[in-house]
Amino acid sequence: MAATNELTIERRGHTRSAARRRANFVIFLGPAIVLTVLFFVIPVLIDIAVSFTDLSRSLRITKFTTEQYQRIFQGDRRLPQVIGLTFIYVFGTLAIFNVSFGLVLALATTSINKAAGGFFRGVWLLPRMSPSVLYILLWLWAINPSEVGLLNQVLMHAFGLSKPLDLMTAAPIALIIIANGFIGASLGMIIFTAAIRGIPEHLFHAARVDGAGTLAQIRFITLPALRWPISFVTIYQTLSLLVSFEYILLLTKGGPFYDTTVYALYVYRRAFESGQYGYGAALALFLIVIGVAVALLGWRFFDMERLLQRPRIEVL
Amino acid sequence: MLRWTSTTVALLAAALAGGSAGTLVGVMPALAQNTIKLELWSRQDPSGPLRAGNVVKAAERLNKELAAAGSGKRVEIAVRESPAPGFDDDALQLLKVFGIGHGPDMFIAAHEWICAFQTDGLVLKLDDYIAKYPQYFGTIFPSLWESTKCPDGIYGIPQDAEARMFFYDKKLLRTAGYDDAFIEAMPKRTLSGDLTMDELIDIAKQAMDKTKAQYGILHRPNKGPDYIMVFQSYGNGFVDPKTGHLLLERDKLAAAFGWFERGVKEGVIPANNTAMEFDALRKQFYAGNAVFWMYGIWDLGTYAFPTYGLPSDEAGFFADWGWIAAPAPKKGGAPGSLTHPIIYAVAARAADPDLAVRLLGHASAADLNTDHAVTTTHLGIQPEQLEDPRYAKAWPLARATELLKITRFLPNNPQFGDLNGIIFRALQGVETGRLSANEAADFVIDEATASLKDVVVK
Question: Residues A43-74, buried b or exposed e (16+ Cβ, 10 A)?
């Protein structure tokens, strides 16, 4: 009888723990799953469905067709240029600003005294904290192609430039990389700063005792400790740069001509400026595929699985 | 992003017409037995606030007419304003709104879009109504009805017309060494086909070289009708007369793009014209920093007089300013101008189509249309308006009417709005040095044949 009771209790315990596990699953993973389904899976399914239709400016579907895909592979002469530009934009912004400059900022602001470091980090966070429209409005004022633009005032009065500079026409790609980079650098700066702060102080003391200079300390202590944050920032920012275009749209509208029309903006221009929603959906599907592929490749390339297993900085 | 501003428009209408806010009483009857609510879609447009305002005022007249006829019906108007930056964006927005079943009962559109609505069955055919109500529509200029026609009939009511031209700054030309005889003869030389598009660039160049003017020729920075005037001058009609399909002729396209290319090469048209702000461009011209400004007659009443302080009397204006039509491409060729009527249309699913048409009929009354014409320097739609002393006093209207003899329309093809988007992108490509004139012609043909239907290429 006693044994039966114990068994019952144990079973109840099992039942309880199974119920608890289910409850935990729903509580902890449920919201994420619901959000993923609502804002990723369902939109992707709708996008796939729309891409096989002729949905156009009056939002009517008259037939199901594969002609949008035929157009992508056969008829769209703008695509190679757009894809090439997207590569330059994503790689340029990442390499120059989001990773490299973010790292420089983190190294610089952690090597000076705390208050000054905090102040400069605060300054570099300003672009990210500003609403995008305001941020771009400041850019437009600064690079105004006439002599009243801030940049031109400086160049003409301080450096004696004779004619005002028109960056929007002369160097639009550099412009969108810089405008996006000033925002992107701050994320890397914050994450790298936190990681640098996490490196045990004694490693630096020991290195100094061994005669290591600043550069040697960065190379042999700081950078190895930052491998994981750098991997994360690279993957995260690649995906972010691939799909976001609001700063470009506000700053250059994708122009002049198609010079700053990156892939995501191209999808937008096709769908919403020309009312070719079916074609825009087909183009967007490739963006989803590219995004997933880049995420998986990055995961593999940077061995992110190991990163997520246990903390790396503490074991150094 | 739409705002309900019937009150604002009504007040504005009342104020501009010299009336009073009392008009609102008629607009929204408190105790009408059978009130039919009609919604009007209108773009927020400082160059034509009375397009919607006149419809609001017309409701008062229609309600009186209904009351006099013993009808229990009354109309109530709501104006739904879209913030679209131009008529093309506005039409695309409205097509989407209709697509999801939330369209208005009436709308205001640029004429070349009407057949896009007609193709999708979104707009009411008006031939029978126009025949039924000659008291409203009988005297509207026949030429203007052409702009409201699709292949099977009339789908819109002309609301206004205008003339497009190249304004020029006589002070700069005088400073550059041109004598008064030359300057004053320019409009006539243009009309006779003696002054050519290339000479326009040469004059602008000389004026820039010999004065402090930084710009030679400026044009609108966004997609719109004005630059199409240049394409038409070079023989681009854009519609195949045999089939009614869009027509693209490579050589004629390249010739028109070539004019812009040469303008930029000579430093006369700024390479960044399409990157500049509308107001900045306008300001450059009216402040004496640009020789020519390719735009339209309404700019005088809307901006030049009130904002930039140009003399609003005829003699004062023509002392230092002037305008010419779009010149011929070669000596002896045909000059041109472009009129771009804005039209009223009734939705196919309007709550009460008959009342909507009658309402728009009242809004087209000579006195109300003259209010719009004289306050924004747009051309009227009926001969009666010419007898109105206010209209006669508005000298820019009378002077611009000369250009109607050589004016052209944009084609009423349902895809022309899309084609114009492609032409604008190519134009931007040419001016910024991304495309040569020939490449721009190829770009237009490639893009149009890939994304539009039934395009005839020659």
Answer: eeeebeebbbbbbbbbbeeeeeeebbbebbee
